[in-house]
Amino acid sequence: MKTGQSSRAVTARPHGFGLIEVLIGMAIGLIAMVAIMQTMVVAESQRRSVTSGADSNTGSVIGSYLIERDLRMAGYGITSISPSGVLQVCGFGTVTLYNSGRSANTVPTYNGTNPGTNTYVPFTPVAINPGGIPAGDAGTDTILVNYGGSFGNVSDRATIANPGGDGTSLTVTSRIQFHKGDLIMVVSVPAGGSCEVAEITELPGSGECSAAAGSTNLMTRAAGSFRSYWANSAAGCQTIASRFNGNPGTGLGTGVYDGGRVFNLGPPDKFASRVYAVRNQVLTMCDMTTHDCTAAASVNDSAFWKPIAPGVVVMRAELGKVTGYNGASSPVWTWDQAPPATLAGWATTATRPDGQVASLGVAAVRLVLVARTDQFEKDEISFTTATVPDAAGDVTWARDSGGGSRTFSLTGLASWKHYRYKVVEAKVPLRNVTSGRSLIECPVDTTTGGCS
Questions:
Q1: Cα–Cα distance between 282 and 142 in angstroms, integer?
Q2: pLDDT level of residue 141 (50, 70, 90 thresholds)
Q3: How far is it, in rounded angstroms, from Cα 288 to Cα 311?
Q4: How many alpha carbons fall within 13 Å on the CB side of residue 404?
Q5: Taking 60 as the threshold, does the pLDDT of residue 438 lie above it?
Q6: What is the pLDDT of residue 66?
């Protein structure tokens, strides 16, 4: 060390963040985390709304598709409008459909004689709110659809000549278009109002069964009731499964079916009798051929009422009836739920002003389904006059240019303002009831009866 040079202590300068800096950094980080979490919450809420909205859309669309599919088939094979046809006798009488899976005292029985009673379950193409079917959720309708699956038009040619007093055979004037395995409906003369469903498992003397000699117009069965399934009794016949079966100890009364008719309903898996209803905010379907859909104790049993579209809260439907024609060819429509009280109310014809023969009677069904999301919105949704439902909770459907429409309310649903809704409407022509006769398809103005 040089003389006169002062010595200084060399000290290390501290490095890092001070307490204030750390606190400021933590505050910034917390603010950023809050912003990120808020963004995630909003995004997740939007995702759930979109997803649940898609679910409600899917439920209503699927439900509408399934009902429309059946409605387009409604009446196929059962709409003979003659005085001795299915609609006249069975639609306003009684039908017994026996099924091998049920005992004789629980088989479905259709009763079309008293539309205003709680036993009314008509064997007609379509019925809305039939009295014998337990009602669905409050403010909803039930729809019954019936149709066959025959490949041929079997009508009054198959007249019963002898109902077989010995309880072993049924003779008809023509056996054309009947096939082994088909379901048949044995129809009494109109005064009797009695109809029975059974299954053909043998046509004696036909190539479908055997070459054994016998009447080509004869249908036979095993010992027991005509209500039993039709059973094989000839050598060489393949046995048909006993899907439709009744009480083998009871035979048809002698003469009851003299002069009656036999109609072909087609193969068992093509015959349909289905009821649709909204139960516990789920669209359900009950199959009358396999379950007793009239049993009030079974409305919550999914084995009876099978869920087909969740989230459906309302189903409404109406029958469209053509009562006449305006101008040259514009149909005049009446829309309501009342079942026709006569055969002419279902199907008849009239000459239009332009000279063409056209249909009168039930020609269409219109329906609306409302589904709601599964997502419960924390804050009430601000519905307006332009939304569905509107601010008052009403849904308007079946609008036309004449100002006609139908309205129902969703305010009866718990917390209805906390959910979003999807509405699907459809108008389905009943081609099998109108028999293909001229009928204009267009949006109908209910005031003028013409196209809107």
A1: 13
A2: very high
A3: 24
A4: 15
A5: no
A6: 93
Q: From the CB of residue 265, how many other CB atoms can be counted at a distance below 10 Å?
A: 26
CA pair distance 180, 229, nearest whole angstrom:
12
Residue pair 317/365 in contact by the 8 Å Cβ criterion: yes
| Neighbour count for residue 126 (Cβ, 10 Å) | 25
Per-residue pLDDT tens over the stretch 356-388? 888 889 999 999 999 998 888 888 999 999 999
Distance CA 350, CA 429 (A): 18
Determine which helix (DSSP H) or strand (DSSP E) holds 32, and give its type and residue range.
Answer: helix 19-73
pLDDT at 118 over 80: yes
Any idea which of 24-33, 73-82, 151-160, 263-272 has the lowest mean pLDDT?
151-160
Q: How far apart are CA 451 and CA 325, in angstroms?
A: 12
If one compares 102 and 199, the residue with the highest pLDDT of the two is 199
Q: Rounded CA gap, 414 and 392, in Å?
A: 15
Which DSSP string corresponds to 141-167?
A: --EEEEE---SS---TTSBEEE--TTS
Cα atoms in the 13 Å half-sphere on the side-chain side of 199: 24
- Of all helices (H) and strands (E), which one includes residue 36? helix 19-73
User: In 10 A of CB 67, how many CB atoms?
Assistant: 25
Residue 290: closest CA among 269, 276, 309: 269
pLDDT at 247: 41
Cβ atoms 163, 252 nearer than 8 A: yes
**Triad 135, 136, 137: Cα angle to 5°:** 130
Residue 88: band (very low, low, confident or very high) from pLDDT cuts 50, 70, 90: confident
Q: What is the mean pLDDT of residues 18-25?
A: 82
DSSP letter for each residue of 315-333: EEEEEEEEEEEETTTEEEE
Between CA 369 and CA 314 the distance in angstroms is: 6
User: What CA–CA distance (Å, rounded) separates 78 from 108?
Assistant: 18
Separation CA 197–CA 182 (nearest Å): 11
pLDDT category at 282 given cuts 50, 70, 90 is very high
CB contact at 8 A, 63 and 317: no
Task: Quote the tokens at residue 242.
Answer: 């006993």
* 3-state class (DSSP) for residue 274: strand
- Give me the sheet containing 94-97, strands edge to edge: 109-111, 94-97, 194-199, 183-187, 261-266
Give the tens place of pLDDT for each residue, 237-271.
Answer: 444 444 433 444 344 455 667 777 888 888 878 88
- For 67-107, the DSSP string reads HHHHHHHTTTTT---STTSHHHHTTTSEEEE--TTS-GGGS
